[in-house]
């Protein structure tokens, strides 16, 4: 079965892969041996993972881990998980924008968009994480001058003018807006479009 | 020079890639051009990347290589890179061994495995990596490889086309490297895309990307 998860990233030397899954430099094999795709949250150590053909047995074992978030099979139901705020905000994913009618599919796509922004920030900064020193409740003007340069360059790389961004904005607002950028555009993980 | 660029690594004697041709610059590790007229990485347990310095491609680009030998076992890889930085191991990479294949996003020497390990490379096959915006696509003989394409935004600059490899596998080699810009005339492979919709998985045939 196909399942989406949020999974910690583990690093071995310079290589990073999804914890609990089998990958090239898996430090604690055997990981879950299935076909998977990973969309990292930039250089932050979490990723969206799509397990393309995970078994029910492996799935049940995986979600016993408290650092794994399991998306429901039916992505078109409204988000109803009472623990979602604690889990997501704990890994720098804002949830204060969720409404009672937001579906898991909408959440998943917003997440993917946020992840793309932090990926680009990582690339432009040559290996830094947007949340290296900041939190979701850090205001843009409180980033270091170097971090602000990287942030602005990331914004520019997506075709926007950073001068239009209010410096008093919180990162939680800005990363959410970054997710909005992808509205109507597909994401692909291992050939699966969502 | 002009794109697409090609190199068939013809040499009268074994030498390092950068001695063989000034069009190549090592970014990390190094490569060897043996008398078999192909190319392999040349340093034990070292990731190797070299960029084609003679042309500056567009950001939407491809790099491909034909595999000529896979005799070294699982610890030796050969393949290609796209958007390879001149200053650090920053790029997308698709390479393979006699037992598996891998697609990575590299940023400043740290690399993320974007999908589970793919099937082994096969001698005689051509492996290609395409970067089209945020769509990162591995291909085998023009068909989507089993790893599948991936949305990734880490490396957006065009940088350079290049080679990728791992360790000193003199029997893990590639030939007929080619790199260039993607365009409307670029070959569009037929792929199958699974679209997750509700709890169902709907499969559609999709021609062109």
What does this structure look like?
Helix content of chain A is 30%, strand content 16%. Chain A contains 5 helices and 7 strands, in the order E-E-E-E-H-E-H-H-H-H-E-E. Chain A has helices spanning 56-62, 84-90, 104-124, 145-157, 171-180, and strands at residues 3-12, 15-18, 36-40, 46-51, 69-70, 188-189, 192-193. Chain B has 209 residues and is mostly beta strands. Chain B has one domain: Exo-inulinase, domain 1 (Jelly Rolls), CATH 2.60.120. Chain B contains 1 helix and 19 strands. In chain B, strands 1, 7, 12, 13, 14, 15 and 17 form a 7-stranded antiparallel beta sheet that branches. In chain B, strands 3-6-16-8-9-10-11 form a 7-stranded antiparallel beta sheet, with no helix packed on it. A 3-stranded antiparallel beta sheet of chain B has the order 2-4-5. In chain B, strand 12 and strand 13 (135-140) form a beta hairpin. The A-B interface holds A 2, 9, 11, 14-17, 21-24, 34-40, 42-43, 47, 52, 73-76, 112, 116-117, 119-120, 122-123, 126-127, 157, 186-194 and B 47, 88, 90, 100, 102, 105, 107-117, 134-135, 144, 146-157, 191-196, 198-199, 201.
């Amino acid at each position: 079965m196909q399942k989406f998860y949020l999974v910690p990233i583990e690093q071995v030397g310079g290589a990073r892969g999804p914890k609990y899954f089998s990958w090239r430099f898996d430090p604690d094999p055997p990981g879950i041996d299935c076909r998977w795709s990973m969309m990292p949250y930039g250089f932050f150590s979490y990723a969206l993972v799509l397990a393309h053909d995970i078994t029910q047995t492996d799935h049940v074992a995986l979600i016993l881990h408290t650092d794994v978030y399991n998306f429901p099979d039916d992505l078109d139901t409204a988000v109803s998980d009472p623990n979602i705020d604690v889990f997501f905000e704990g890994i720098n994913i804002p949830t204060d924008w969720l409404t009672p009618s937001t579906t898991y599919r909408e959440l998943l796509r917003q997440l993917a968009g946020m992840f793309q922004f932090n990926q680009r920030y990582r690339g432009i900064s040559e290996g830094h994480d947007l949340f290296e020193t900041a939190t979701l409740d850090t205001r843009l003007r409180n980033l270091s001058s170097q971090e602000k340069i990287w942030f602005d360059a990331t914004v520019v790389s997506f075709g926007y003018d950073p001068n239009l961004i209010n410096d008093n904005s919180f990162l939680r607002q800005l990363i959410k807006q970054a997710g909005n950028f992808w509205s109507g555009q597909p994401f692909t993980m291992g050939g699966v479009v969502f | 020079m002009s794109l697409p660029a090609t190199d068939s690594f013809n040499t009268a004697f074994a030498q390092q890639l950068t001695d063989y041709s000034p069009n190549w610059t090592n970014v990390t590790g190094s490569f060897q051009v043996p008398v078999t007229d192909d190319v392999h990485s040349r340093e034990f347990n070292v990731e190797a990347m070299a960029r084609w310095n003679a042309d500056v491609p567009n950001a939407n680009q491809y790099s491909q290589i034909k595999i000529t030998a896979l005799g070294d076992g699982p610890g030796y890889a050969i393949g290609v890179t796209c958007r390879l930085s001149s200053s650090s191991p920053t790029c997308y990479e698709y390479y393979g061994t006699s037992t598996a294949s891998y697609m990575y996003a590299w940023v400043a020497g740290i690399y993320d495995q974007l999908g589970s390990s793919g099937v082994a490379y096969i001698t005689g096959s051509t492996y290609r990596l395409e970067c089209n915006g945020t769509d990162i696509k591995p291909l085998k003989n023009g068909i989507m490889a089993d790893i599948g394409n991936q949305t990734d935004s880490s490396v957006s600059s065009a940088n350079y086309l290049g080679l990728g490899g791992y360790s000193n596998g003199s029997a893990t080699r590639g030939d007929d490297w080619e790199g260039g810009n993607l365009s409307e005339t670029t070959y569009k492979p037929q792929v199958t895309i699974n679209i997750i919709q509700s709890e169902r998985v709907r499969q559609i045939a999709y021609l062109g990307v």
